[in-house]
Amino acid sequence: MSDEKNSKQDKKKLIAEKLVEQQKEARIVRKIVFITAIVGILLIGAVGGGGYYYIKEALKPVNASSEKTVDVNIPIGSSTTGIGKILEENGVIRDARVFKYYVKFKNEAGFMAGDYKMNPSMTLPEIISSLKTGKVMQEVVMKITIPEGKQLKQIAGIIAEKTQQNEEEIFKQLNDKEFITKMMGRYPDVLTEDILKENVKYPLEGYLFPATYPFYSEKPTVEEIVTVMLTKTKEVLGEFRGQMEEKEMTTHELMTMASLIEEEATDKVDRDKIASVFYNRLEDGMMLQTDPTVLYAHGEHKDRVFYKDLEIDDPYNTYKIQGLPPGPIANPGVMSIEATLSPADTDDMYFLATSTGDVLFSKTLAEHNRKVNEHITNKK
């Protein structure tokens, strides 16, 4: 009986040891599976993220500043795949496969064979439009440069001067309800219903992006010019959609705040610090009190704003209204948009632009007034 008892105990001990060993093996397997899963997820994320950025880059012009003319021949019967390969080989697009899927996604068709003169600065919509109409792109005939911080009236003047058209007629079209509605339909992510809100002076104010635009005819229409500009605005804003969503900021809010920063900034200034001041004021319940909005309310440019100017009763006058004005007061550039979305982390509540272009920041009104006396009042 003793031997039988010892035999049973040995068996139990052996079974227990095997169970412990199996549990250890199971834990190891689970760890391996867990690590493998994590690595897999990271790889998928990396590939997905890399793929996203690759496609994003592939949709951009090969060289936005290029003035080079490229001769491209599209043979009769060419497929979309074939056309993409030809365009890529000639350096007109970045990736033939991306072009192919872009065309399918946009449901484009009806490309025409022929000899084309294209340019590496052309966007995919421009290339597709050319191929659909059979329009041979010639060398750049004219360029229109729209600087940062320009208002719609000034932009109308620049277009008029370059195209030899009537400035008043151009400005009238830029504010035509039917024209604006048409543009809103084309660019719903850029031109939202916010541009039609009460008190907005000019719906397209701030949305015609500052850049140099090449044109291939001596007198492009206002619609053609605005279309190119809004396409650029869409491309630029596309870079910041993630940040806008994180901050729960609408396109109109972004462009409005960025326009204030643009108008206050100098060549030497840190725009992110100006943005910080504006956000600090809003958080503290202060009025923004920025002079460019006063000038916009008056509808004229002045080298200096006087106390009497601050009294104007206008929804754009941030000395009278709380929060942001109804809309942008000029067209902001990329740096001002970046500053709006990534302001500096400061406690500053005031800033002062000096005659040398420097901007001095202060945390208190007393400190700000001392700097005003030192750099403004005593310099007169």
Automatic annotation (TrEMBL):
UniProt entry keywords in alphabetical sequence: Cell membrane, Cell wall biogenesis/degradation, Lyase, Membrane, Transmembrane, Transmembrane helix
What are the BP-aspect GO terms?
Answer: cell wall organization; peptidoglycan biosynthetic process
Source species: Mesobacillus selenatarsenatis (strain DSM 18680 / JCM 14380 / FERM P-15431 / SF-1)
Superkingdom of origin organism: Bacteria
User: What residue intervals traverse the membrane?
Assistant: 32-55
Give the protein's biological function.
Answer: Functions as a peptidoglycan terminase that cleaves nascent peptidoglycan strands endolytically to terminate their elongation.
Entry-linked Pfam families: YceG
The catalytic activity of this protein is classed by the Enzyme Commission as: 4.2.2.29
The protein, known as: Endolytic murein transglycosylase
